[in-house]
């Protein structure tokens, strides 16, 4: 066994296999619109919008101005006990008004992993409050990604994200169900017993698992199964929320009425850390009963509802609305589908293309590695990302022009021609 210890910068690339990335990291120094620039001066088209977050593009001056103005007024004040800040109040009202869940309450925190922890804990507290104390298991789906806090690690459907914590992982009462298989889900519910299940978490379109849009009717059937069995239906809209699928939320696209929705990334387009949970009335009301015995849902953090993040989110929502960017993603979806169909027709190495909103996945045959294609794309000025299933991620910012999208797919075609 090689025992040589590698040296490198103080910053640990903790999501990566260190020997594979050390010395190869691209230092990103600047961004503008749909492009980012490396410290070495290379310009790259951001074909993934970073980690599916930079929906309005990079370095927008309005968001910088909103952050500056808020910091000069008040950086933040925590939401603890009797304290709250005006920005968190205003953002929660705005999100409630645009939410697919009627009359919701909003819990604001600092990101997607955080939102998942809140949603799973709240699901359990909901059933305890209802006197159904055995309902504690959280179901999730094979290939799911829900972040890497304790609950996200435990419910991860990508096995490598649970590595080192055992199959039962950090939180004992979780269980993965096979993807897109209603009968298998019914069998798991019957095996565990609905009296022991608190909720199921699902991405409307699986992202990191390979961009997997749901089969027609699948999510509606899962929602109905949840209703029939008193299981909370929790939709993880961390990627899909705020316009990625041509509606503000994918719940609208698929006609769903979840009990909880988690969101993050697109709420600020990544300009400041923020996430949260939209909570349906039957879940929040027991915590609002005017009685000494009313329980507390104790989940708080210093940066929950951070005032500067909330001010940035408001400016981001203004831009989405002012420029009609959500309807623009619907147009981009149509173009993306046509482009990827052509790509698939042209290249034998493309075994499948999947599109759901302005979100695409290109799966390649075993002889062409998505990692190697992504590396070569960087060499010619484009960013994609290898996902599970030897798949390339396509999810540029919403401000992408038709010409830029066509050039991006052409670049993929060029690299595939070289690799085939
Ligand atoms: N849920 C989904 C569906 C995600 O894609 C992600 C991140 O990619 C998360 C949760 C975790 O979000 P964050 O990275 O902001 O903690």
UniProtKB/TrEMBL annotation:
<dbReference type="GO" id="GO:0030170">
    <property type="term" value="F:pyridoxal phosphate binding"/>
</dbReference>
<protein>
    <submittedName>
        <fullName>Aminotransferase class III-fold pyridoxal phosphate-dependent enzyme</fullName>
    </submittedName>
</protein>
<dbReference type="GO" id="GO:0008483">
    <property type="term" value="F:transaminase activity"/>
</dbReference>
<dbReference type="InterPro" id="IPR049704">
    <property type="entry name" value="Aminotrans_3_PPA_site"/>
</dbReference>
<dbReference type="Pfam" id="PF00202">
    <property type="entry name" value="Aminotran_3"/>
</dbReference>
<keyword id="KW-0032">Aminotransferase</keyword>
<keyword id="KW-0808">Transferase</keyword>
<comment type="similarity">
    <text>Belongs to the class-III pyridoxal-phosphate-dependent aminotransferase family.</text>
</comment>
<dbReference type="InterPro" id="IPR015421">
    <property type="entry name" value="PyrdxlP-dep_Trfase_major"/>
</dbReference>
<keyword id="KW-0663">Pyridoxal phosphate</keyword>
<dbReference type="InterPro" id="IPR005814">
    <property type="entry name" value="Aminotrans_3"/>
</dbReference>
<dbReference type="InterPro" id="IPR015422">
    <property type="entry name" value="PyrdxlP-dep_Trfase_small"/>
</dbReference>
<dbReference type="InterPro" id="IPR015424">
    <property type="entry name" value="PyrdxlP-dep_Trfase"/>
</dbReference>
